[in-house]
Each structure stands twice: as structure tokens, then as C-alpha cells.
Amino acid sequence: MLSAWAGSLVPVFSDTTVSGAEHLSRAATSGCVLAANHTSFFDPVLLIGTLHRLGLRPAVLATAGLWRVPLLSRALTREGYVPVYRGSRRAGDALRHAAEALAGGRSVLIYPEGGLPRHRTSHDRPPARLKTGVVRLALSMGAPVIPIGHAGARRVASGSRAKQLAGWVTAPVRRPRVHVHIGPALRLDASDRPLDALEVALGVTWSRAVHGLRGGRPCEDPVPDDQR
Fold first, then answer.
1. Residues 149, 206: contact at Cβ < 8 Å?
2. pTM of the full predicted structure?
3. For position 226, what pLDDT does the model report?
4. Where are the beta strands (DSSP E) in the chain?
């Protein structure tokens, strides 16, 4: 239900284009970790909705505070989403539940930066340093990681609370352009600085999303060694 709902909202609040969708073919047949940059409160709608429109319904790691919202908590649980209790003794539960989803053949969407950027402008900035949880999850399950970069989401809503509210209200009229670029799957290697490798891949994927947002055609992604 939530995925379909988000899918219907994406074209209402934005003019979203996608490139690299062919890289999701692996995620459709086996569990993958989908690692995306995090820029605004529009991100969950954007990514869940876009993936739904591409035929994929991943389990999503989301802040546990959402489970305190009446009715929404039931919907989140029904969709198999995973609450993240940051800074508490239950923080490790998220990775355990995510691993269970992967073991069941379901893909998992995670924001490895661990939170939203603090700057208030509507401009996009490169992804921040990543937390280690995404790498630990992928390595423990032997799951490939698909980096997803997007640009333009801050044009929907960013800044102070008042500006964000105004952004949400006016977005259906403005329909700001947003671009999502999906990169090729990575097989992380514990012996080869896997976090650095993922940071580079996510940075490249985000750069291609920025290029696509500006009207350019994203460069062709290299074919990973394990797909040649």
C-alpha cells in the first residue's frame, strides 16, 4: 500500500526522470542492498515511489519515530519496513531484521549517511561520509550493493520548517525536476576497504544524477568484473 501510494505521489510533487534502471534486474531476482544518498524529507516518497514504478518493493530502514504515528505504524509494519533506533541499545536490531529480509530474497533500501544534511539551501551536495552498517550488512549476507544517487529532491522541500511546508504546498504546481540514477551492483570485499569503495560508487552515481538533472545524458556505467 505505501509503495503504491508513494508511486502515485512522485509525479504529483515532481517531474522525476530515471536512468540506469537496467541495473535493478539483479534486485528483482535476489536480495540486494540498495544504498541511496539522503538529502530531504521527500527522499522516502521519491525512492520508494520510483522503485515501485520500476517493479521493486524493498524493505526500507527508517527512523523509529515514524512508528509512533497512528495508522502509519501499522502500514510500515505491514510493508515489512525496519525501524532504526539510533543511539540506543536497540540500534543493532535494524541490521538483524534487514539481514532476515535479505535471507528471504527481499531487497533492502538503506540511507548509509545516517541522517539528513544540515545545510538549508536547495542546492545538492555530494553524499557525506557513510556509516559502516551498510557494509557490515552486505558482507555478512554476501549480498551485492546497488548504489542509487538522486538530485533535485531538495527543490521539493528544504530549509526552515516554514520553507519546507511552503515547498510541499507549492510543489504540485512547480513540479521541480528530479533525477534518479541507479548504478551497477557492487560485490564488496572485506579485504579491500569496502566502505571507501562504496563511498566512491555512491559519489559517482550521485554525480551522474546531477548530470541527468541538468539535462545531460548520464555517462554509461562500467560493467562490474563479476558481470563480464
1. yes
2. 0.89
3. 46
4. 15-19, 33-36, 59-63, 82-84, 108-110, 145-151, 177-182
